[in-house]
Design goal:
single chain, 404 residues, Rossmann fold, 14 strands
Length: 404
C-alpha cells in the first residue's frame, strides 16, 4: 500500500458483496471519500439497488449510467468486424466490457476531482490487468487501488464476516455459497469458479439464463434475416434497430433455439488456465452472419490478411490492450476492409445450430457468369494450364535438384 494519502477514489461498483465490502474497506483503510460508478451494460438486473446500497454505506456521489448503446456501438461492433475469437472459440464478452468501464471511471474521476480509482478484480485474474491498463492509458498518473492485492480478506468466509461486522447486507445465496460466480452484460453471461473449477464436471442445466437446452428448443427452428451496412448489423427481419436493441433481439432469437453455449478452458494472461462456461446467443448468430456477408463482399487476399491478424487482435482485447496504439492500427485496417460489407444474410436457427441459407449484397464479388458449370464467354479454361505451370515451376526445379 502506497504511503501517499488518497482523498477521493472512484470505485467500479456493482452493489454485490465484493464491491460493497471494498467500498467500506476503502473508507476504513484509506480514510478517503468513495465515489461509486455502476454501469448498466445490459446485465439483465436492476442497477438502481446499487445506488441505494451505496447511499446506505455513506456515499455522497453516486453515478449510474446506461451505457448499453455505447457498449455495443463502440466496443462490441468494432470487435465483431474482425470476427474476433480468442483461442478460436471465445467471443470475449467479459474482456470487451472492461475498457468501457475503465473509461467511464476516469471520466468521473476528472469530473469530481478524484485522485484514485479502484476495482474489485482479484489478483489471480485477467480483469485486474484490463482495468488497470485502461486506467493508465487514459490517465497515466492516476492512483490505482486493487483491494484484493492488499487486504487480508482472502476468502468468501472472511468477506461475509467483514460484511456482518460492518452491517453490510449479505444476500442469502451468498451466505449459502452460490455454486459459481457470474458476470453478465448484453453480449454474454460467464460462469466461473467453485462448482465449475473441475473441468471434468459438467455445468448444471439450472445455471443457464439466456439459452434453452437444445433438447427443449423448438423442433421446427426459425429462419431470420440480418442486414449489414459497412460491416455492422443494422436490421433484423427488415426492422431497423439501434446497436443495443439489435443485439438484444439476437439474444432473444438465439437463446430460444439453444444457440451460443460454450464450455471452455482458456489461457489467462497471468499464466494459469481457467475453466469458464459462457452464454453468447446473439453474438454467436452475429458472428455467423458477418462471416457470411463477408464471403461475397470481401476480396480474397483482403479477407485472408484480416483472418491472419484476427488472433493477434483477439489477444490484444483479451489481455487488456484496447487503448493501445497497435489495437488502433489493427482497427483501422479492419474498418477499411468493411467499406463494401453491406448486404443481407438469411440464417436458420435450429437446435443450437446457426445455418447460413443465403446471402446477397449490392456490391457482391460473387460472379455467376464465372462460376457457372454451363457454357460461358468470360472465362477461358485453357488459361489455367499456364497458371498451374508457373505455380509449379519452383516445385519442379526443387524436385530435379533433389531438395524436396
Amino acid at each position: 500500500m502506497s504511503s501517499r494519502p488518497v482523498k477521493k477514489v472512484v470505485l467500479a461498483y456493482s452493489g454485490g458483496l465484493d464491491t460493497s465490502v471494498i467500498l467500506r474497506w476503502l473508507q476504513d483503510a484509506y480514510g478517503c471519500e468513495v465515489v461509486t460508478f455502476t454501469a448498466d451494460l445490459g446485465q439483465g438486473e436492476e442497477v438502481e439497488p446499487a445506488s441505494a446500497k451505496a447511499e446506505m454505506l455513506g456515499v455522497k456521489e453516486i453515478f449510474i449510467e446506461d451505457v448499453q448503446e455505447e457498449f455495443v456501438r463502440d466496443y462490441v461492433f468494432p470487435m465483431f468486424r474482425a470476427n474476433t475469437l480468442y483461442e478460436g472459440t471465445y467471443l470475449l464478452g467479459t474482456s470487451i466490457a472492461r475498457p468501457l468501464i475503465a473509461k467511464k471511471q476516469i471520466e468521473i474521476a476528472r469530473k469530481v476531482g478524484a485522485d484514485a480509482v479502484a476495482h474489485g478484480a482479484t489478483g489471480k485474474g485477467n480483469d485486474q490487468v484490463r482495468f488497470e491498463l485502461g486506467y493508465y492509458a487514459l490517465q497515466p498518473d492516476i492512483r490505482v487501488i486493487a483491494p484484493w492485492r492488499e487486504w487480508d480478506l482472502n476468502s468468501r468466509t472472511r468477506l461475509i464476516e467483514y460484511a456482518k461486522e460492518h452491517q453490510i447486507p449479505v444476500a442469502k445465496d451468498k451466505e449459502g455459497e452460490a455454486p459459481y460466480s457470474m458476470d453478465a452484460n448484453l453480449l454474454h453471461i460467464s460462469y466461473e469458479g467453485k462448482a465449475l473449477e473441475d473441468p471434468w464436471v459438467g455445468p448444471d442445466e439450472s445455471m443457464f439464463r439466456r439459452t434453452v437446452a437444445i433438447e427443449k428448443a423448438p423442433e421446427s427452428g426459425e429462419t431470420i434475416e440480418i442486414e449489414f451496412e459497412h460491416g455492422d448489423a443494422v436490421a433484423v427481419n427488415g426492422v431497423k434497430l439501434s446497436p443495443a436493441k439489435l443485439l438484444a433481439k439476437l439474444n432473444e432469437l438465439g437463446g430460444k433455439h439453444g444457440v451460443g453455449r460454450l464450455d471452455l478452458v482458456e489461457n489467462r494472461y497471468v499464466g494459469m488456465k481457467s475453466r469458464g462456461v459462457y452464454e453468447t446467443p446473439g453474438g454467436t448468430v452475429l458472428l455467423h452472419a458477418h462471416r457470411a456477408i463477408e464471403s461475397i463482399t470481401l476480396d480474397r487476399e483482403a479477407g485472408h490478411l484480416k483472418d491472419s491478424l484476427m488472433p493477434r487482435y483477439a489477444s490484444l482485447i483479451y489481455n487488456g490492450f484496447w487503448f493501445s496504439p497497435e489495437r488502433h492500427m489493427l482497427q483501422a485496417l479492419i474498418d477499411k476492409s468493411q467499406e463494401n460489407v453491406t448486404g443481407t444474410v438469411r440464417l436458420r436457427l435450429q437446435k443450437g445450430n446457426v445455418i447460413v441459407e443465403g446471402r446477397k449484397a449490392p456490391r457482391s464479388l460473387y460472379s455467376m457468369a464465372h462460376v457457372t458449370f454451363e457454357e460461358d464467354a468470360v472465362y477461358n479454361q485453357q488459361d489455367a494450364a499456364g497458371f498451374i505451370k508457373l505455380n509449379a515451376l519452383r516445385l519442379r526445379l526443387g524436385a530435379k535438384a533433389g531438395s524436396l
